Amino acid sequence: MIDQLNRYVFRFFLVIFFQVLILNNVQFSGYINPYFYIWYILVLPFDTPGWVLLLSAFFLGLGVDVFPQGIAGNGSSLGTHTAATLLIAFMRPSVLRWINPRDEYEPGTYPDSKNYGILWFLSYALIMIGIHHFVLFFLEDLSLRDFLRTLLRVIMSGIFTLIIILFWEGIRFRISR
Fold it and tell me: How far apart are the first and last CA of the chain?
């Protein structure tokens, strides 16, 4: 149990540092911003208590919100990542029930491509990334004036984030064999 806790704490900080130090500096013409850090919320075990899920999401989003202000200064409003990450953590149980491939998920398993297949994980990740990016980019703009531009940012960044997450899942799947 302590070993698992250490693994999750290590992943938590690793994901934040990877996002803040590397991915926040990747930006293609203002339309593609990869947000890999949400992978942490996506692959938490099914039986993770709701309060742990929400607390993890809060600190994960806060970490991504706070660090760029001092290091890269990417100009995003403080709290946008926190709000978007909290929303996907809150909606995660409902999304998992909605796309449930069986009667119930097996206790102690994780929502990843290894346990439930790449198509299931693709649909799960696509829904969660879509929700996250939609909320994130519309909170950043706080306007419907550039609706199509913001929607294009959601789609382009969502696809790029999905590609990075699927690539990482492929690496994890090969390593765990």
Answer: 22
How far is residue 56 from each of residues 45, 87, 161, measured CA to CA in Å? Answer: 13, 12, 20
Phi, psi of 32 (to 5 degrees): -120, 110
Tokens 């500096």 -> residue: 25
**CA gap 13, 10 in Å, rounded:** 5
Cα–Cα distance for residue pair 20/11, rounded to 1 Å: 14
Longest dimension (CA), the chain: 50
Distance separating alpha carbons of residues 168 and 17, to the nearest angstrom: 16
Tell me the whole-structure pTM to 2 decimals: 0.88
List of residues 6+ apart from 114 with CB closer than 8 A? 169, 172, 173, 176
Residue 32's DSSP bridge partners are: 28
φ/ψ of 152, rounded to 5, equals -65, -40
pLDDT in tens, the chain (177 residues): 677 888 899 999 999 999 998 888 877 777 788 999 999 999 999 989 999 999 999 999 999 999 855 444 445 578 999 999 999 999 999 999 999 867 677 777 888 887 788 899 999 999 999 999 999 999 988 877 888 999 999 999 999 999 999 999 888 766 655
